[in-house]
Structure formats: structure tokens, C-alpha cells
Task: structure prediction
Amino acid sequence: MSARENLEKVRAAIAAAETETDRKSGSVRLVAVSKTKPPEEISPVIEAGQRVFGENRVQEAQSKWPGLKGETTGIELHLIGPLQSNKTAEAVALFDVIQTVDREKIAREIARETKKQDKHPILYVQVNTGSEPQKAGIEPDEADAFIAMCRVELGLKISGLMCIPPVEENPGPHFALLAKIARENHIETLSMGMSDDFETAIAFGATEVRVGSAIFGAR
Result:
């Protein structure tokens, strides 16, 4: 199947999951994860009406998205991979949404760059719900304090939370934990669920799902 056909299949699955969980139609946004894919593979998905995309690396996104954005209005670009502090200026300049605010150093760099550039991307905090040492994200029991620090001390508007559950575990409890942290901090946007588990994520309240391989194929 082509990426365009895969996109329609994913859209249909999202709509079905909304219906099954009594969610309002259109309440879940699809972030098409285009990392490692060249512009010629992304363009047909844009032509099919997709406007929200996710990239893992700042440098890779810089190499392809200014051109793609120039060709089509309304593109919303999300950074969904770890952000290195030396790439913060470029990330703030290029991305509309940064989903991976995951430590104090990055939060401070983002605060500095948003003021310097007078550009304010939407910000999510990444929570390491599985407390995996190899994975980015703030620890769940530190999330409340970290969100408060970002908001009060740094003046950052934290609009969402995101997580990536451990591969070998049932994702449901991780999605439930993220939803709980969101409620406690009056956060409405939940970015959770990928190609293998986005329907489960929708059942637990996801407002955005990040789907790559189910649309573009294996990397």
C-alpha cells in the first residue's frame, strides 16, 4: 500500500477508536512521524491533506522542512525526539511544537531562546512513565514540580504532556499515569500512542497520536 492509502487507513482507525470510546469525532489529532523520510515520500501525504508532522532530529528537519513548508501553508511541525541544548536556538526557530521538554537545562535554554527570538513554540513536557534509565523524560514523581518550575520561574506555557511507554509492557497503565499527571496540572493535550498502540492511547484520553511506520512503512 502507498503512504497515501496507509494514511487513510490510520485516519479511519482513529475515527473508529473515537467512536468506540465515546470521544467526540475529530478530538484526536494525527501527528504523522516523517523522521528519516525524504521530501519526495512526505509530499504525497501532504497532498492527501495531512498538515501535522513529527521529526526526531533538528538537523534532519532543517534539511527538508523549510522547503516543504514553503510549498504548502498550514504545516505544523513537532519535535518529538530529544533536544540537545546546542540545538535549542534552531529548534525554537523551526518547530511549531516542542514535545520533549524533559529537564531543567533544556527548559532554561528554551526560555532564553523564546525571549531572544520572540518566537513561542507550543511546549509539552515529556514524562518517562517507565522510569527507564536509557530514555529521556522527567520522572513521574518529579513532574508536578518540574511543570510548576517551567510555568512560574521560567514563564513557559506548558500546554501538553507526552510519553513513550516501555516496549515490552502493557501501555495502558503508562497512558493512565500520564493522564493523571495532566489532570493534576490542568493540562489538556496528551501526546501518547504510536503505530502499535494508538487505539489504546485514545481509550485512555490521548488528544494526539504519533504515527510513523503505519503510514510511511518501516524505516
